[in-house]
Write a structure and sequence with these properties.
Layout: H1 2-23, H2 31-45, H3 48-64, H4 76-129
Helix pairs in contact: 1-2, 1-3, 1-4, 2-4, 3-4
Membrane topology: Multi-pass membrane protein
Function: May play a role in anterograde transport of membrane proteins from the endoplasmic reticulum to the Golgi.
Keywords: Endoplasmic reticulum, ER-Golgi transport, Membrane, Protein transport, Transmembrane, Transmembrane helix, Transport
């Protein structure tokens, strides 16, 4: 089970790195290359969406079927295990939501940069004709 969370973490990290590189100021010389990398990485990173939704459903299922541990029926070890399980589910939920948010932001920033590049090319084409 830890492998799927490691894979989601790796995809989220890749999304974050590409997003940071795209939004750094002073990257004029690398702009076209970074946009091309971002555009080509969007399609493989789209796999994060169904994968994250599946993992979110898994978190929900585990939360709904979590054994109750209340009162004197539980000893200290069971209460500790229960609280660790809840903490781990919350952490994994934040990772899933972060992965989905990073993908959406990466998609929107890439689309915005592509449209800005297209508009600047149109302006360059209009200036010499005037």
């Amino acid at each position: 089970m830890a492998l799927e969370w490691a894979a989601l973490g790796a995809m989220t990290t890749a999304e974050a790195i590409i997003l940071i590189l795209l939004t750094l100021p002073g990257r004029q010389g690398l702009q076209k290359g970074l946009i091309a990398v971002a555009r080509t990485s969007l399609q493989p990173l789209l796999a994060v969406v169904p994968f994250a939704l599946f993992l979110l459903l898994e978190i929900y299922w585990k939360y709904e079927h979590l054994p109750e541990c209340k009162g004197s029926t539980c000893n200290v070890a069971e209460q500790d295990r229960h609280s660790k399980s809840v903490f781990k589910s919350q952490r994994n939920g934040i990772l899933v939501l972060g992965a989905l948010l990073f993908y959406w932001v990466l998609y929107r920033v890439t689309a915005m940069l592509v449209s800005l590049e297209r508009i600047s090319n149109q302006l360059k084409n209009l200036k010499p004709s005037e």
